TrEMBL record:
Segments traversing the membrane: 20-37, 43-61, 68-85, 91-110
Bilayer topology: Multi-pass membrane protein
GO cellular component, one term: plasma membrane
Pfam family for this entry, one: CbiQ
Assigned keywords, A-Z: Cell membrane, Membrane, Transmembrane, Transmembrane helix
Protease found in the keyword field: no
Source organism of the structure: Gordonia soli NBRC 108243
UniProt-recorded name of the protein: Putative ABC transporter permease protein
Length: 200
């Protein structure tokens, strides 16, 4: 798997749950992790809970760890920032909360088809249509957002591979500039597609 949280077919109990239940569980799980984890012991308990969720979904540790690969530089930056301004324990806790939240979101995407997720969200926001909200456009925006995440992860991977192939050291100028350019090109492509379909 080369992109973040690509759907993996399966017959696990988590795969069989309705998308709405999983999205609600994700919201509750992230809220609990954010509010309850205050130290290393509670962080360990939360991590054990996330491991249990992945085991219930039948997703192996290699696939789970791949979900964190795009976050490595962010986690390193946050860790260094927290160590400088607080202490190493707080740094571990903050990075742990961030990593566990991403893993919870990823397990939902890994066990839920994008179309099923969008249909659920579309039904949930359908009452807003009575207020004049274009719920179809909201659904399209969500679809583009979901599609853009793995695209940008793949772009980041390709840029990093090109850097290593050229023997360059990682740095803001080497990594950020090509990624930003690729992001702008992707946005232009999305825009042209929407305009061609009369959704400008």
């Amino acid at each position: 798997m080369t992109v973040l949280a690509a759907y993996q077919p399966g017959r696990s109990p988590l795969h069989r749950l309705p998308p709405g239940v999983k999205l609600l569980g994700l919201a509750v799980g992230v809220l609990v992790v954010s509010l309850a984890v205050r130290g290393l012991p509670t962080l360990g308990l939360a991590a054990a809970g996330v491991v249990a969720v992945y085991a219930l979904a039948g997703i192996g540790p290699v696939t789970a760890l791949r979900q964190l690969r795009p976050l490595v530089w962010i986690l390193l930056f946050v860790f260094a920032f927290q160590v400088v301004f607080t202490d190493w324990v707080r740094a571990v806790v903050v990075c742990g909360i961030l990593a566990l939240s991403v893993l919870l979101a990823a397990v939902v995407s890994l066990t839920t088809r994008t179309t099923d997720m969008l249909d659920t969200i579309n039904r949930a926001i359908s009452p807003l249509a009575r207020l004049g909200v274009r719920t179809d456009l909201v659904a399209i925006a969500l679809a583009l957002t979901i599609r853009a995440i793995p695209l940008m992860v793949e772009v980041t991977r390709q840029v990093d591979e090109a850097r290593r192939a050229r023997g360059l050291r990682p740095g803001a100028r080497i990594l950020v500039a090509p990624i930003v350019v690729a992001a702008l090109r992707t946005a232009d492509g999305f825009s042209e597609t929407l305009i061609a379909r009369g959704l400008d």
